[in-house]
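User: Hi! Is it possible to get a structure for several chains at once, not just one? Here's what I have:
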Amino acid sequence: MSLSIEQLRAQARDAFARHGVPTRRLEHWKYTDVKRALAPLADNLLELPSDPMPVDALGDELSIAGLDAWRIVIADGVVLSLPDDPPQGVHVASLAGQLHAQPEQGVAALHFDEQAPLFNGLVALNAALAGDGIVIRLEDGVRLDKPLYLLHLSRGKAVHIRHRIQLGRHAEATVIEHYAGMDAGLSNVISRLHLAEGARLHHVRVQQEAVGRTHIGRVEAELERHSQFVSHSVALGASLSRVDIVAELRGPGADCRLDGLYLTNGRQHADHHTVIAHRAPHCRSREMYRGVLDGRSRAVFNGRVVVHEGAVKTDSAQSNANLLLSGRAEVDTKPELEIYNDDVKCAHGATIGQLDENQLFYLKSRGLAHEEARQLLTFAFADEVLTGIAVPALRRHIEHAAFSKLPHGEDIEGMLAGHDGTGEMA
Amino acid sequence: MLKIENLHVRVDGKAILKGINLHVRAGEVHAIMGPNGSGKSTLSNVIAGRDGYEVSEGSIRFKGKDLLGMAPEERAWEGVFLAFQYPVEIPGVNNTYLLKAGVNARRRHLGLPELDAMDFMQRVKEKAKLVELDPSFLSRGVNEGFSGGEKKRNEIFQMAVLEPELALLDETDSGLDIDALRVVAGGVNRLRSPERAIVMVTHYQRLLDYIQPDIVHVLVDGRILKSGDKALALELEARGYDWVREEAGA
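Assistant: Yes, the chains can be modeled jointly so their relative placement is included. Here is the combined structure:
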């Protein structure tokens, strides 16, 4: 059965009418009051977005410095331009273009499933309203020579974006989604990823929206046999952010790593919900999320791992560690393991704490001043999440952003001058 | 250089050191030997400034200054170095950056210009050779994934780079096989100098076969019961500690 775009939009509007904006009465939104955050928009959430803003030189200014990538700027949810000459076997289109030229592809990209893990009204809202996004397909065996860099600049009140990325068999790519919203409002972005047999995808989200903005993100990844998926989700900005990542390990031998970092201060709120569904035998999943919280900020981590009946020889490990720099910051962390067969190896752990006294003493005994030692340990704690990022300019960018968020971080950045992410001295 | 007078220390209300007197002059190598639980590690931790020790009486002066009034980092800047018995792992903090920060913090304290990256790396490479430290360890996290022996080697390497005036070696020989012990001891011996004092805390006399002390002290039940030359260490090895206790009437 294939829907027309009009039918799909109508269904999505119905679904949104039924589910609405999630409230704290829902189990997975208990700690995150998105309804309150979106109250100023409540009456016109179903209005279509306004015209795109002028971008001028902002794109260059906010881009990750020194990043050699295929850059695509998305302004207020509208794709401004596509690469002129993508490599052979790489097909890049805008969703708006596809809805026009190949509507059935566009409809497929906008697909939503009310039974999917962590489904909520905002997913339906996205399906109802997203007018644009990137649709990219790599043919079998194609390796993207440099990252695909999606720079999202948003000023609009409500911006809904839908991306779809499909990697053919043994194809390889790195995709960076960078969010640099500038004003209050809502960014609501869904990325649907498909990895065919043996494909490898590194997917990095860097969320640096302005304070005042609400960021809702969702990543749905389907992993076929022996594919490898690495995800980094870095949450630095926005007043309230909520990112759901769902990885479905559908083929034997699939391998997934979900890493994340959230740094919050002031009254920021950062929420990550992840689901890793082991549906096939011999799959492996690794997950490491870390947070550093200051001020009166609040973070939520909910990591669910489901090992289905046939998923024998599953190997799964998950950890979430949090550092509280302030007595008024708060974390709610909840690992959830559901295992439906005996032949598995699963580990998980969550910690909330302060800096380690033994490590502090060690650094001070080597001559580091108390504050310097604290800052260095704090940065090192956060930086460990970034070790899997192999693009130096990207890692530098995130580290720099992290430094500027940590108390006196600029001192440490000076001290580590020469650090290029590989541990070499300049 | 180091003058400890009538030092009494409590941990969780329990008296551990009960009146330690110890004078160490520049250029000297002292060994403090004693059975487990005699207070050896407490002594080195108190000198380095670790929290959790209550000094109820006595003083520690270093180059005439009151050491007990200083923060651990100030002691490091003054030239005190502790080679830990159990060096902690600090993932994500690069070994070399730590040392560079340490060296330059001390130089600022002393009113010297900071070392630039080139001079610093030069020094680091030289010293790494001294203890036969694999250069790949330089760019790794501090002690991250190091074996017990590698951690001890790294401690002596750090000591060589930081060039302290007073080096405290806390059970540096424990966990070392004979080859590693030889290398580590060789590193320490090359750091002996007329300007530097070394205090080794050890349970066994094995280390003293490689690093010859000028003076040996026997620490039992929180007191130094006997001091002597190197021959004392051999006697302890042969006869244990009980006779010292009896002789002292303790």
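Chain B has a mean pLDDT of 92. The domain at 2-248 of chain B is CATH 3.40.50.300 (Rossmann fold).

User: Great, thank you!
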